[in-house]
Amino acid sequence: MNTKMSDNVKKIVEQNNTAKRPHRHLSPTTDGLLHPPFLPDELIFQILLCLPVKFLVQLKCVSKSWKTLISDPKFAKTHLRSITSITHQRLFSSRLTGKLGKIISFAVKPMFENPSKPTDPVEFSMEHRFRILGSCNGLLCLFDTEGGYVKLWNPSIRYESKNSPTLRFFDLVSWIWL
């Protein structure tokens, strides 16, 4: 890990670490329970950086300090920088069927490792007919072809933004090309 990244890790951990945890070892206590060994905050931080967003959202309930750390915008930026280097990249395509739409996702890495083997897509059913306008940092910008509004969608946690104001077609075209 480079020095700048290490310094950033220390700063974020220090800011989010309000109280130091006591060192624990696997040994019976007076209550007869075994306690897990102590893991340094920097090690926990590095482990969390390697996990997909979907799991990070689930891990917010582990403790208040984890929730604070995972919710920190600085952690999110550091996570984004580290996760993009791990090649968890996906291709997305939209498919319109009747009044419903589907967003189809393919992992990129297996396509390059074994191009002759078909990859299994992940399909997300959508309530409306959406077209993918673009993506940035794992978020998809979707356009409802019937309602004329734009949404941001995070497929990792299946979170959709609220609808934008309705856009007329020529507004959308000029908006895309800005």
From TrEMBL:
<dbReference type="InterPro" id="IPR050796">
    <property type="entry name" value="SCF_F-box_component"/>
</dbReference>
<dbReference type="InterPro" id="IPR036047">
    <property type="entry name" value="F-box-like_dom_sf"/>
</dbReference>
<feature type="domain" description="F-box">
    <location>
        <begin position="39"/>
        <end position="83"/>
    </location>
</feature>
<dbReference type="InterPro" id="IPR001810">
    <property type="entry name" value="F-box_dom"/>
</dbReference>
<protein>
    <submittedName>
        <fullName>F-box/kelch-repeat protein</fullName>
    </submittedName>
</protein>
<dbReference type="Pfam" id="PF00646">
    <property type="entry name" value="F-box"/>
</dbReference>
